[in-house]
Design brief:
Layout lengths: L1 H13 L2 E9 L9 E4 L6 E3 L5 E6 L5 E6 L6 E5 L6 E3 L2 E3 L7
Length: about 100
């Protein structure tokens, strides 16, 4: 029973990683308050800080898709797969949506 528990903990730890980065607009200005969520689990996410930086913990051992959104900007999706506790840097540029009246 103990060896089974230890093996499950090892599998859980191997599947973890961190995704960090910066969200900017097409002019290179930081987007304060941009949201980054897991597409498969919208309850897991992060919000960009004053400098546009975000950090999100990934607990899945499989590739996941991150969705970057902000009001008035076109959303962007990026697939990531951090393994063995690695930190993946993903910087994103969001472009404004075109609205017609």
């Amino acid at each position: 029973l103990l060896s089974l528990l230890l093996s499950l903990i090892c599998v859980y730890v191997v599947g973890q990683g961190i995704v960090r980065g910066k969200v900017v607009d097409n002019l290179g200005e930081t987007i304060i308050g941009a949201t980054v969520i897991l597409k498969s689990d919208p309850g897991t996410g992060a919000v960009a800080d004053f400098d546009g930086n975000y950090s999100i913990n990934i607990t899945s051992a499989e590739p996941v898709t991150l969705v970057y959104t902000f009001i008035g900007m076109t959303s962007f999706e990026q697939e990531v797969n951090p393994k063995n506790g690695e930190v993946v840097i993903v910087n994103v540029e969001l472009v404004p949506k075109n609205f017609e009246l």
